[in-house]
Amino acid sequence: MNILFVMKHRESAGNTHAVANYMRVAPKFGHSVAIYGKPIWYVPELEFSLDIRSFDRVVYVYESELYRIEPMQEAVVLAQFPRQRRLIVDTDGMYNPVVSIDGYDFNHRDEAERAQWIQHIDALGDRIMQPSIARPIDARARALTFYGYNPALRVDPSAAPTKQYDILHVGHNWWRWRQVSAELLPAFAQIRDQVGEIAFIGLWWDQPPAEGPSAGPEEAFRSDPEALRQLRIQTPKAVMYHDVVRTMSTARINILTQRPVLLRLKHLTLKYFEIFCADTIPLLMLDADHAEDVYGPASRELILSGQVAEKLLDALHRPDHYRGVVEDVR
After folding, report:
1. What is residue 249's predicted lDDT score, i.e. its pLDDT?
2. Which of 1, 39, 40, 260 sits at a 20 to 30 Å CA gap from 233?
3. Contacts made by residues 230-234, CB under 8 angstroms, sequence distance 24+
4. Which of the four pLDDT bands, split at 50, 70 and 90, describes residue 6?
5. Which is it for strands 141-143 and 100-101: parallel, antiparallel or unpaired?
């Protein structure tokens, strides 16, 4: 079976790495996978195609943007693939009622925006999947983990890069600042002289998007670069999707955060699994019950909540113990 993914492909964000994983494993089962579009020279490992008629199924992957291809091409896609051959993956919980987290994070601004999304998705197909192991809120959607742990991507400790950081967060500042400023920065302040380098690698930690309001809600990118500088926290630029796992491996500890609305919906993201491929100690800012549902009971010892500063120091001082916990999760 030949499967075409229609999605907004970005080299340092989104779901590109997830689809690249499908490209890797599909041939083992007699299938092939490609992304709709023209080849991109700096990601030669990705398969792209505009030859719509050579595919048997189409998968639409939606994030927080109602991404659409050119109307003429969209008409060809819809003609080529009857509804039963279309699959829709709703990664950001847009096919749901309006969900707002304390007036901070949300999936839709209002009912009018939600209606636009629902109308578009319902016109495309009937099979709507959400990356979760929990039952979706909307009964018309179904749970599909979509992401997964691939042991082949695991970084061998004997070949891992040199540790540059004691503590690292790899990910963009997209609805993260409230949790970071309320829980992580005060903990870092308590122990800053007891740990080495700390870094937040990704977009928008030290400045807002250059695109301005068109990039999304201003609150989604809120940060305080001066607070980061005072704590000597580095903010290197984002890395390519295929460098995420190796970059995580440059730190003794990696912290996993999740945007609040996805945490409420119990949606999975690729980072849930990338972080356990890295040669590092993952500490998880997740609900403990949800983490156990995903990772098993060993993960409870990796939860980073409550006494955050103490937990960070404990992981740095007892790395062998925590590596054993990480192996149990793997």
Report:
1. 98
2. 260
3. 231/185, 231/188, 231/189, 231/192, 231/198, 232/192, 232/197, 232/198, 233/188, 233/198, 233/199, 233/200, 234/165, 234/197, 234/198, 234/199, 234/200
4. very high
5. unpaired
Please tell me the distance from the alpha carbon of residue 212 to that of residue 78, in angstroms, as a whole number: 34
Provide the whole-model pTM.
Answer: 0.95
Whether 277 contacts 249, CB under 8 Å: no
| The pLDDT of residue 213 | 83
Q: Average pLDDT for residues 211-218, to the nearest whole number?
A: 87
Q: DSSP states of 255-276 as a string?
A: EE---HHHHHHTB--THHHHHH
The pLDDT of 191-196, averaged and rounded, is 98
CB 258 within 8 A of CB 220: no
Task: Please check whether residue 5 is in contact with residue 36, taking contact to mean a CB–CB distance below 8 angstroms.
Answer: yes
Asked whether residue 12 carries a pLDDT value surpassing 90, the answer given is no
